[in-house]
Amino acid sequence: MFNRPHAKQPWLWAAAIALLGSSLTLSQAFGQTQPPANGPPSASPAGISDQKLKEAAAAIPQVEGIRQNYEEQLAQAPQGDKQRLQAQAGDEMKKAISDQGLSIAEYNSILQAAAQNADIRKRLIQQMPEQDRTPGP
């Protein structure tokens, strides 16, 4: 690895982008507009179990991979195919999330809580699989 100031923590940026991008993509892919959570109990750092964070952390790279796979296809697809591709992406994302033991609502709630709370975000990043993050200093 090169000796650049930010070279040792690129996973922080990747995780932050994945968290926000995945959350937005899920809503768009599912054709849903979800109202923001108004302070659900799970938004507190103690309200989300380590197990749920681990499940979300395992789902994030999968969901992000699906998003990336379909992003280019959607950009190049004729207008008539876009809805079908969005539905396929949504189905694959739902499966990736449910395969980890989470509901879509739980996943979105955890991502929203992580986006709003640094403690939850830190705990979530710590739970991410090693291959999806570069060790920090």
Verbal overview:
The protein has 137 residues and is an all-alpha fold. It has one domain (14-22, 43-129). Helix content is 66%, strand content 0%. Helix 2 runs antiparallel to helix 3 (79-98) and helix 4 packs across helix 5 (118-127). It is elongated, with a radius of gyration of 16 Å. The relative contact order is 0.22.
Throw out a few tags for this protein.
137 residues, disordered C terminus
SSE layout:
Blueprint: H1 10-29, H2 50-76, H3 79-98, H4 104-116, H5 118-127
Helix pairs in contact: 1-2, 1-4, 2-3, 2-5, 4-5
Give the N-to-C terminal Cα separation.
13 Å
**Dominant shape:** elongated
Please outline the major beta sheet: none
Which radius of gyration do the C-alpha atoms yield? 16 Å
Roughly how much helix do the residues carry, as a percent range? 55-70%
Number of helices: 5
Would you count the extended β strands for me? 0
**Class inferred from helices and paired strands:** mainly alpha
Strand portion, in percent? under 5%
Order of helices and strands: HHHHH
Q: Mean pLDDT, as a whole number?
A: 74
**Which regions are unreliable across 5 or more consecutive residues at pLDDT < 50?**
1-10, 30-43, 132-137
Number of domains: 1
